[in-house]
């Protein structure tokens, strides 16, 4: 059974195909507002690329300062690739001060689904917005696995981020056990559907991160990534950026980014080493 949202997407795509209109025109035609993360040139959707660094729980004021200096010195001026850094909460102020006025954006690794209230230890979307965040990661597999975040909670976080004007980077991905049981498609479709049932994906970003590839040094092959990206793409408007994440390194990035449905990467370990991260950004050009 298709969800109401999936049915709408399907119907609107059909309408747009029949009328010879682009998807964004079709959405406008339906009277819905939508941001445009893509450009259409001669009928081809060109999505801008994004490489986001997920620092996880690493860093200190001193090492962050060195990393930021090295990135600012080493990243090519005009790459055509959007770059974002997601440090731990306490360093957002430091990162925002250093990156203000530069082409590098910043974001957080998580947020609360609630606006405000008695939620000890939580951080709201509005607080992140005040710190100048453009992005926020939601539903990272470490949040799902270690902190028990459910599909519904991830969807609520996605909606809270969007309501505050942040761009959520929503993560989906299967475990090794699920892949070996042939359940990859079912798992990622379920995780995405939970979000689409709750929110319009809008200008949100999706990240396919196979759990077995995160921090293991075992990346998905470009073909494995492409296969999952292509099926996720079918659930979304053509302008939505889908990043790959999981053991992306300077040495494998170019082959992964060469896949037609891979629009950049969500980089963990390799985003902590300036030289490595700069090479990865270059590979996305
Ligand atoms: P990794 O992490 O690049 O260290 O595998 C990716 C992620 O968790 O986003």
Q: What topology does this entry show?
A:
Layout lengths: L3 H16 L3 H7 L8 E4 L2 E4 L1 E6 L6 H14 L6 E6 L5 H8 L5 E4 L16 H6 L4 E4 L2 H6 L4 H13 L3 E6 L3 H5 L3 H13 L8 E4 L13 H12 L8 E4 L4 H8 L6 E4 L6 H10 L2
Helix pairs in contact: 1-2, 3-4, 3-12, 7-9, 11-12
This protein binds 2-phosphoglycolic acid (PGA).
* Helix content bin: 40-55%
Looking at CATH, which topology of the largest domain would you report?
TIM Barrel
Q: Enumerate the strands of the largest sheet in spatial order, edge to edge or round the barrel.
A: 3-4-5-6-7-8-9-10
What are the secondary-structure elements, in order, as H or E? HHEEEHEHEHEHHEHHEHEHEH
Q: What is the CATH homologous superfamily assignment of the largest domain?
A: Aldolase class I
Rg from Cα = 18 Å
The number of helices is 12
Structural class assignment: alpha/beta
Envelope shape: globular
What's the CATH C level of the largest domain? Alpha Beta
Q: Sketch the major β-sheet.
A: 8 strands, parallel, barrel
Alpha-carbon distance between the two ends: 39 Å
Mean pLDDT: 88
Query: Low-confidence stretches at least 5 residues in length (pLDDT < 50)?
Result: 1-35
